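Q: I have six molecules that I believe assemble together. Could you output C-alpha cells for the complex as a whole instead of separate predictions?
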Amino acid sequence: MTGKEKTELRKTQILQAAAKVFAEKGFQEGTIPDVAKESGVSEASIYEYFSNKENLLFSIPMEAMQRLSEKIDFHLKLIRGSAEKLRAILYLQLLFYIENRDYAAVIMLILKQNRRFLDTEAHQAIRKHLKTVDKVIRDGMECGEFRNDMDPYLIRSTCLGSMEHVVTNWLMLGHPTDEELLKWVDPMLNALVRGVGAGNELNQCPLKHLIVPEDVEA
Amino acid sequence: MTGKEKTELRKTQILQAAAKVFAEKGFQEGTIPDVAKESGVSEASIYEYFSNKENLLFSIPMEAMQRLSEKIDFHLKLIRGSAEKLRAILYLQLLFYIENRDYAAVIMLILKQNRRFLDTEAHQAIRKHLKTVDKVIRDGMECGEFRNDMDPYLIRSTCLGSMEHVVTNWLMLGHPTDEELLKWVDPMLNALVRGVGAGNELNQCPLKHLIVPEDVEA
Amino acid sequence: MTGKEKTELRKTQILQAAAKVFAEKGFQEGTIPDVAKESGVSEASIYEYFSNKENLLFSIPMEAMQRLSEKIDFHLKLIRGSAEKLRAILYLQLLFYIENRDYAAVIMLILKQNRRFLDTEAHQAIRKHLKTVDKVIRDGMECGEFRNDMDPYLIRSTCLGSMEHVVTNWLMLGHPTDEELLKWVDPMLNALVRGVGAGNELNQCPLKHLIVPEDVEA
Amino acid sequence: MTGKEKTELRKTQILQAAAKVFAEKGFQEGTIPDVAKESGVSEASIYEYFSNKENLLFSIPMEAMQRLSEKIDFHLKLIRGSAEKLRAILYLQLLFYIENRDYAAVIMLILKQNRRFLDTEAHQAIRKHLKTVDKVIRDGMECGEFRNDMDPYLIRSTCLGSMEHVVTNWLMLGHPTDEELLKWVDPMLNALVRGVGAGNELNQCPLKHLIVPEDVEA
DNA sequence: AATGAATGAGGCTTCATTCAT
DNA sequence: TATGAATGAAGCCTCATTCAT
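A: Yes, here they are, computed for all six components at once.
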C-alpha cells in the first residue's frame, strides 16, 4: 500500500515539476535535467516512471483532466438548461486553467500543437470532454434554447475558441490578470450565448425540467 | 539591382522552404539541414541570409503579414459599416490562411506560443493588425452598431479566438476541409456579430458614411 | 543443507538464464534486466550471487565445463589408441556443444574473445582440457600413431580449429543442422587424423595397451 | 579531386583508428571518443563519415578485404594445381592478418560473432572470398587432387578453421610470435592438404596445366 | 556570394550497481 | 535472503553554427 502510494506521489511530483519546466521554457527548451532539478529527483529516476521525454509530456494533463472532468460531470447534474450548462462548463474550465496555470500552459501552448498527442490516451480524455460539450449544445438546439440553423460544431468552436484565445493571451502576455479573466467569463459567455442563442430570451426550453441528469453522461 | 533582386529571391526561397519544413515538423524537429534540402540551398548559405535559426523562423511571417495587411487596408477603404468591416477583416484573414497553409501553420502553431516572438519586428506587424481590428470594433461601439457594454478587447478576443480555433483544428486535424472552412465563415461571423451586436438590426450606424478610410490606419 | 541446495539451484537458474540471454544478444547487448526477467529473479538478487556482470558471464561455463571434463575423463579410460582417444574427445566436445547450444554460444562467441577471461578460474578448466588433448597427441606422436614432424601445438590447433569453425558457423548461420553437424564429425576427424597421422594405417601404436588411464589426467 | 581525395584520406584515418581501438578494447568498450582521440578527429566528424558506431565497425574490413581479394586473385592466376592454389590463398590470408593485426583482430574477434554483420556489404566481400576457396577445392576434387569422398564445405571448414584458430590464439595470447606463425603455415598446410588430399602424391592433377586462370574468377 | 567540411555543446537514454527494507 | 527503488556515470548522436576556400 504505502509503496504504491509513494510511487504515485513521486510520479505526481515529477509531473508537477515537468509541467512547471515545460510551461516556462517550452518542451524542447525544457530539459530532463531541468525537470530532475525542479523535482528533486535524479534524471534516471524520471525514466523509471516515464518511458521517455515525450511520454512524460503527454502524461502531464491526464490526472488534471480527470479531476476537471469529474468536477464538470458533478456540476452538470445540478444544473438545468443548456445555456446554463454550457456556461458552467466553460466557467469550470476557465477556473481550472486559472488554478493550474502550469497545466494550462502545457495544454494550451504545447500539447495543442502536437500531432502525436492526438493519438494519446490523454487526448481521449479531452475528446470525451468535447463530447460532453457537444451533447449540451445539441440538447440546447433540440429544445430551442440555441439557434438550430448553425452547425453545432461551429457553436462549440466559437465558445471554446473564444475562451482559449483569452487564456492563451493571459498565459503569454500576463494580460488580463487572473481577476479580470474571471470577471470576463460572464460577459463573454453572455455574448456567446446571445450569439448562439435562439433569440427569444433564455429559459425558454419547455422541456428543460424534464432533462434527466443522466443524459449528459451519454 | 539584379544582385539585390537575386538576393531577395533567394531569401524568399529559403523562407518558403522553412515555412514548409516548420509547418510539417515543428520548429525544433525541423532542422536547418531540412530547410537546406527543401530549398536547394546549402546550410551555410542560409546563414548568409538569416543570422540564426530562430531569426529565420521569425522572418517567415513578415512578408506574408505585409501582404495581408495591405490587402485588408485596401478593402477596408471600400466598405462602410463596422460590422461589415469586421466581417471583411476576418474573411480576408481566413482566406489568407487557407491560401497559405504553411504560413498559417507557422503562425498559429509555432509563433503564437513563442514568447521571444513578441519582441520581434514581425510581431509588430501583427500588433498593428490587431489595432486595426480594435479600431473597427471601437468605431462600431461608438456608433451603436456593437454592444457597448462589453470590453472591446473581449469582443476582439471572441472574434479572433473563434476563428483561430477553427483554423487550428483545420491545420491539426485536416477538418473541416478548405471548402467547408470557407463556407463556415459567414454563419460564424453572423453569430459573432449577432452576439456582439447591439441587438437592433444591422446597418444602423448613422455615421458610418462619415468614417473616413484613413481613420482605420491610425 | 536445504538452504545451500536452494542457493545452488538459484545460481544455476540464473546462470542458465544468463547463458540464454547472452547467447541470443551478446554480452553487452544482453542486460542484467534481461537476465532477471529470463530467470524470474530480481536484478538485485543476481548481485547476491554474482559480484558483477562480468563475473556472471565468467561463471557460466564453469559447471558445464566441469561436467564435460568429467565425462571425457571417464570415456578416455575406456579407450585405447591415441587416434581413438582424440576422436572421442572431439566427439564428446561436439556433442556437448550441440546439447548445450547456449553454453556453446557463450563460450565460442563471447568468452573466446575476452582477454580478461584468460585470468579466470573457468579458463583454467579449459586449459586443463587442452592439456588432456595435448597429452593424447604427444602420446600418439611418441608411439608413432601421429606424425612426429609436426609441432604438437599445431596438431591440436588443427583439430580444435576445424571443429570450432564448424561449430561457430552452426551457431551463427544455423548451418549445418544439428544432425548434419553430428554426421560430419566422423569424416572431419578422419581427414584430420589422416592429415595428422603417421601415414601407416591406424592402430599401429605398439604400446597403446600400456598407456594407463591415469596418465591422461596429469 | 583534391577534395574527394582528402575525404577518402580522412575516412581511412578514422577507420584505422577505429580498427586499433576496437582491436584493443573490443567493440563495446571502445568508444567513439576513443576513436576520435586516436584519429585526431572530432567525435562529430566521425559521424560525417559513418552513420553510426556499428556502421563504422562494419566499414573497417571493406578496404582491407578488397586489397586482399585483389592480391589473391592476382596470384591465383599465376599458379597451377589446386593444392598449390589453396596453399597460396591460405598463405596470403595469413600474411595479411600478420601485416594488419588490428584488422585481423576486428575481423576474427569482433565481426565473426556479430549476426548483423552477415547482412553487410562487407560480408559479401567475405562470401566472395569463400567462393574462391570453394572453387579451388571443387576443382581439386574434380581433377583428383583432393579426396572426393568429403563434403567440400567440410574441407573448406577444416582449412579455414585451423588457420583461424591459430590466428585467434596469436591475437589473444600473443603466441606464437609473428615469425613462428609464418613458419607454421607450411607444415599446417601440408598436414591439411595431406588430410584432404587424394592420397597419391601431389601434382597428380592431369589437367592442371589446362586450367585457365579465368576459372578462378567465376 | 556560396558551400563543403568540421566541431562544440549538450540532451536523451541506458544500465550496472547499491541500499534500505 | 530477496527486492523495489534510486542513481551515477557515461555513451551515442544531433545540430546549430563557423570558417576556409
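A: One point stands out. Chain D touches chain C at residues 26-28, 109-110, 112-115, 118, 147, 149-151, 154-155, 157-158, 160-166, 168-169, 172-173, 176, 184, 187-188, 191-196 (CB under 8 Å).
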